[in-house]
């Protein structure tokens, strides 16, 4: 039984729990065994509190036995990207700066998941402070792609994607600033979902670029993504950009929404740089929707295609340079033993605590905000951002959602792009516009390359239309069996 | 203007309070020169009359009730401090 549990979707696990076929303790034990068996190779976890997870599982089993189960997630483990606070657990951002940091409070998503009975299961590896697209920037070493251990899992939420793909945990949380959920989900063959900016509270998420960051979900099916989203979405007074909007039962909405839909295909997302195998797989997905009765429209996003990456790397680094100023070696985090005065503490603690990519982005962000350059770089980028959002909203006047590849290539080799930051930045070219415009986006598996590497289909939705977006993604998933493919480990 | 020579890495590293090694300065100056060259293309976009966008959420001027609420207990707030004594964070002397 235990070996059969590791690749089941959360909804199926919930059904087994409800039917008393398994207990939450048995489920946690099976996942711990799996984690111990494979994570020496996958390296998705920064840490795992096995005893704490088992105690919460026993409490969930007691609730269920008493007829007081809190819903489908009660007793189901959820992995946390190591950037979201769980009180009493480490929060490292995969940085030496926070190597010994323990969260003093819960993030709002953590509070909500605990209320639903979900079990925080492990701290998952990432690019340091979520800066990267391969998880190679972790201070604790890279995570491997479960489909090919010589390749990257994507990033920055590579540990979350790899853990779900490898059968170590059924669900995980991540954060997506420029594609950091969708890109690793695509590269690891699972479902990765980034909600509309403002739908999920960022309170307790260590900030990278506050106007772009959004917490989202990793899952094996779209139904599971809907289940987890319903548990974490909603207005929060602790996050002033959180939006007051009705939160439907996203899972129930899936069954109600059958289409057909009007789906746009941005022609610029199929141009130079796209691997032909990825393009072919996505074209087949588009053909599937057409055969299902959907209206497929050719649309154009010229500004996004040409300028989103440039706008992103100005705005994200500017915000990062400001956000990461808090790591000063004074109140928490690494403090240099070599420092003699206050300024020296700041400069040396930051030099010792931050890795190379973080330093590079702080320098770039500081430069573009500095006197004499602010207007030319940062302010201009914010204006082009307005135009990019307008471009998306215009296209959405005639479309319910957009279809594109999630990434231009499948998983690349460890080390392949780590020497060239610009090449790494360009691997986010199809995902970044969604963050700039604040839209919801999802990556669902849509096939494999000839070499056996997963391919992701990106579906981009209208602001706060998560129920429609999930239903559209679910329609594709139900017509295919990719979610039943698992890596051999 | 040449964006590569535009970046005064010594000055910016000081602003960012980041003690970089000479090797890092050389490497970052070259790599960030490439990136600044890449973003130069934004100058092609006509932004006349366009409002800058700070974030994508349709909320503005959020007010909170002016009511005291419990915060973190001192022990929790100081738990991660690198050096502490008597419920205070210890730092080197900053005034003579």
Written overview of the protein:
The complex is a heterodimer of chains A (about 500) and B (about 100). Chain A is an alpha/beta fold and about 500 residues long. Chain A contains 17 helices and eleven strands. Chain A has an eleven-stranded mixed sheet, sandwiched between helices. In chain B, strands 1-2 form a two-stranded antiparallel ribbon. The model of chain B has no long low-confidence stretch (mean pLDDT about 90). Classes of the chains: A alpha/beta (about 500), B mainly alpha (about 100). At the A-B interface, helix 11, helix 12, helix 13, helix 14 and helix 15 of A face helix 2 and helix 3 of B.
Summarize the topology.
The complex is a heterodimer of chains A (489) and B (96).
Chain A: H1 2-5, H2 10-18, H3 24-42, E1 45-47, H4 50-65, E2 77-81, H5 108-115, E3 119-124, H6 158-165, E4 171-175, H7 182-188, E5 191-194, E6 215-219, H8 222-232, H9 250-256, E7 262-266, H10 276-291, E8 295-299, H11 302-323, H12 342-353, H13 356-369, H14 375-395, E9 401-405, H15 421-426, H16 432-437, E10 441-448, E11 454-461, H17 466-478
Parallel strand pairs in A: 2-3, 2-4, 7-8, 7-9
Antiparallel strand pairs in A: 1-3, 4-6, 5-6, 5-10, 9-11, 10-11
Helix pairs in contact in A: 3-4, 6-7, 8-17, 9-17, 11-13, 11-14
Chain B: H1 3-6, H2 9-15, H3 22-39, H4 74-78, E1 84-85, E2 88-89
Antiparallel strand pairs in B: 1-2
């Amino acid at each position: 039984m235990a070996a059969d549990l590791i690749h089941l979707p959360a909804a199926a696990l919930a059904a087994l729990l409800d039917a008393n076929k398994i207990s939450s303790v048995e489920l946690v034990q099976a996942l711990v065994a799996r984690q111990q068996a494979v994570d020496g190779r996958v390296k998705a976890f920064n840490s795992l509190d096995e005893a704490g997870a088992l105690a919460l599982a026993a409490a969930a089993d007691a609730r269920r036995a008493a007829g007081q189960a809190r819903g489908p997630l009660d007793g189901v483990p959820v992995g946390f990207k190591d950037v979201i606070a769980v009180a009493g657990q480490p929060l490292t951002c995969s940085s030496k700066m926070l190597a010994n940091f323990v969260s003093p409070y819960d993030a709002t998503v953590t509070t909500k998941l605990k209320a639903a009975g979900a079990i925080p299961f492990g701290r998952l590896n990432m690019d340091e402070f979520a800066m990267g697209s391969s998880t190679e920037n972790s201070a604790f070493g890279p995570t491997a792609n479960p489909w090919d251990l010589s390749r990257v899992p994507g990033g920055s939420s590579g540990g979350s994607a790899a853990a779900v793909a490898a059968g170590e945990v059924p669900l995980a949380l991540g954060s997506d600033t420029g594609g950091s959920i969708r890109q690793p989900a695509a590269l690891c063959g699972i479902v990765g979902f980034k909600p509309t900016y403002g739908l999920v509270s960022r309170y307790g998420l260590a900030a990278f670029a506050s106007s772009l960051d959004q917490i989202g979900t990793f899952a094996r099916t779209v139904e599971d993504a809907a289940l987890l989203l319903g548990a974490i979405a909603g207005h929060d007074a602790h996050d002033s950009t959180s939006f007051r909007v009705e939160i439907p039962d996203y899972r129930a909405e899936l069954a109600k929404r059958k289409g057909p839909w009007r789906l746009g295909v941005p022609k610029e997302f199929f141009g130079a740089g796209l691997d032909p195998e990825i393009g072919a797989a996505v074209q087949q997905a588009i053909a599937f929707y057409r055969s299902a009765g959907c209206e497929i429209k050719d649309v154009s996003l010229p500004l996004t295609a040409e300028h989103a990456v440039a706008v992103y790397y100005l705005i994200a680094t500017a915000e990062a340079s400001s956000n990461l100023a808090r790591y000063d070696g004074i109140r928490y985090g690494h403090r240099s033993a070599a420092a003699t005065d206050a300024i020296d503490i700041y400069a040396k603690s930051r030099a010792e605590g931050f890795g190379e990519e973080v330093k590079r982005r702080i320098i770039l962000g500081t430069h573009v905000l500095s006197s004499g350059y602010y207007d030319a770089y940062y302010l201009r980028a914010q204006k082009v951002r307005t135009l990019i959002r307008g471009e998306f909203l215009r296209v959405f006047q005639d479309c319910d959602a957009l279809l594109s590849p999630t990434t231009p290539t499948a998983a690349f080799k460890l080390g392949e792009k780590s020497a060239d930051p610009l090449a790494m930045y360009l691997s986010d070219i199809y995902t970044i516009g969604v963050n700039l415009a604040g839209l919801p986006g999802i990556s669902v598996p849509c096939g494999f390359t000839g070499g056996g590497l997963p391919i992701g289909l990106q579906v981009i939705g209208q602001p706060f239309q998560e129920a429609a977006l999930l239903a559209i993604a679910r329609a594709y998933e139900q017509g295919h069996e990719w979610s039943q493919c698992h890596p051999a480990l | 203007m040449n964006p590569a020579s535009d970046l005064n890495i010594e000055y910016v590293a000081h602003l960012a309070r980041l003690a970089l090694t000479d090797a890092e300065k050389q490497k970052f100056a070259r790599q960030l020169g490439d990136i600044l060259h890449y973003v130069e293309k934004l100058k092609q976009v006509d932004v006349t009359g366009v409002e800058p966008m700070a974030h994508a959420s349709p909320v503005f001027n959020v007010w909170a009730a002016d009511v005291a609420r419990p915060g973190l207990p001192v022990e929790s707030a100081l738990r991660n401090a690198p050096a502490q004594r008597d419920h205070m964070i210890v730092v080197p002397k900053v005034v003579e």
